[in-house]
Amino acid sequence: MTVNPDVIIIGAGAGGPVIAKELGEMGIRVLILEAGAWYGNKKWPEPNQNRGWARESSDPKDLDGTLFRKQVTRRENDMNDVVTGKFCFGPADRRRSPWYRKLPNPGLLWANGGVGGTTLHYWGNSPRAISYRFDEGWPISYDELIPYYEKVEATLPVEFAPVTSKEALFFYGAKEAGFSLNDTLDVTSPGYRPQPNAILPPNERLMDENYSLEEISHMEGCTLSGHCENGCPYGPSLDKMAKRATNVSYVPLAMKTGNVSIRPNSFAIKILTELDENGHERAVGVQCRDTWTREIEEINAKAVVMAAGPMETPRLWLNSELSHNPWVGRGLTNHHLETVTGHFDEKTLMDIIGSPTADPFVGHTSGARLDYPGLGMISKETWNVIEEVLVFLS
Ligand SMILES: Cc1cc2nc3c(=O)[nH]c(=O)nc-3n(C[C@H](O)[C@H](O)[C@H](O)COP(=O)(O)OP(=O)(O)OC[C@H]3O[C@@H](n4cnc5c(N)ncnc54)[C@H](O)[C@@H]3O)c2cc1C
Hints:
By secondary structure, this protein is an alpha/beta fold.
């Protein structure tokens, strides 16, 4: 398949597989080059050990949920350690040094590698943007975007998160602080709401004692067991896993079109260009490096889509010395994080939520939010290593 695809997409993260599925459905032949490994694909049974396995995969039958389950653990460091973690942005061969990123100022540049990209690790939060931001010079309006939101929300799918103890506590704090429920996907005023998450609704048999937790974890639906950030492996098959990272949602859909092939362990190092008859620079292919053998190869295509993430896409643009584009380096937003941690005695919790504990690890990692258009948002988040319950103190 690799021989002269119509389109090369760089990066199999949140964006790349979505574009691949849409193009594949139009009959356009696509090759995705992904720098990281592929977990949950029979062609790479041990993705962090090179044994001369295949170069690429295009058959949805290669996808294997049982294998993914074996490769993903609930241990934070196994998956997310910034040097050795399976999901960290770096070589699949973890004996090699990490791909160095120099930051001019203190901060954390957190992006993952592998088929699924940063969605392997993300929490599934899928809120729409605040509409008025689009009046500030974006090349697309909010109204134009809505049909695309609707399509992606239906495909993933996106649902409002179920309310467990910690969300109930968050909502209590928000209500006491004078906010009300924002029962909408299109937020225009301050208010709290369950997170719209790309996570399947809870398994209907979750409280049925006739089923063991092990049996339930092989069925369709969220188990409310937390650990969304470690790559949720619960579901009957890879494409039915509860957290809808792109490796379990858009990647299988793209492969099912029969027109999309994905090549992991392939780091794009240069966009190849030529001048057309009008003297305009045009992309004609990609130079990439095999991250195991370090062999360098050039692959031609009629178009190239750069979906390598907010840092790597501009870096690749600049390294390739492509013509000046005023959008390179613009539009980047960061997360300025501040955390509030609350301690509650049992009696207070009993009065508020009817339970002596907030059960921070039950439910979605991030299942509640309060939006304040113009200021930002507060969300309830639980990590394996940090327990955070963000509340408004009235
Ligand atoms: C801890 C955490 C939690 C998050 N939670 C949420 C959330 O709940 N909701 C939300 O909307 N967002 C969340 N995000 C952010 C979200 O995951 C990213 O905004 C999104 O994944 C970006 O999509 P992308 O396709 O641009 O890049 P990525 O998803 O990062 O994908 C880029 C891919 O390109 C590959 N790549 C990079 N360079 C090259 C190269 N040169 N050649 C080939 N491949 C390359 C990478 O390996 C990667 O797989 C979270 C992020 C983090 C770190």
